[in-house]
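Notebook entry, structure prediction.
Reason for the run: the old model in the group folder had no record of what sequence produced it. Starting over properly, with the input documented here first.
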Amino acid sequence: MPKFETIIGATPIEDASDLIPTHILTRPELNEWESQNILNAVRKYLGKRKQHKFDITFVKSVHKDMFDDTWKWAGEIRKRNFNIGADWHKIQEELKALADDIAFWQNQKDGLGLLEQSVRIHHRIVKIHPFVNGNGRHARLVADIFLFSNEHKLPNWPNNELVEETDIRKRYIDALKSADKGNYEPLEKFTSKLID
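New structure, fully documented this time:
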């Protein structure tokens, strides 16, 4: 059974029994495999512009498409608590509240801009932490799908630097922590710098 080293700020992989590809033994091998699985999902959602209903079913579908060749639990809401995220009993409620907020933001005439909305979607999904793993990557893709659906330019995420212990990952985690306290400006700046 593989044992994957823990990265600061990431959910530890304590149980790899649901890992589908049995040949994977190290974190770099897992990252490479997951990257290909995620790339297939990116092509599906960002290949052709389409309007999506941002609800619980959609959030789960995106996660499943990102990890269905990697993990048996892909797209399934976690059934236990971690050191981060909402209590697992409240995840559905928290995701429903986010979906309601997205609908509200979309109906506001002079409300938040699209980038501000996407940053809040991104942060809230990370904060809720609905899945066993992959929550940051999933939150970034859902936020990108939101922007793409609304014909907004997308950030060019430095994906490798965000899954390894790097200075970029540290700044990203710090920006998420600021958003936890209600200050979205650092995450907005971080994201906007990644847009052409």
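Summary: The chain is about 55% helix and 0% strand.
The old model has been moved to the deprecated folder.
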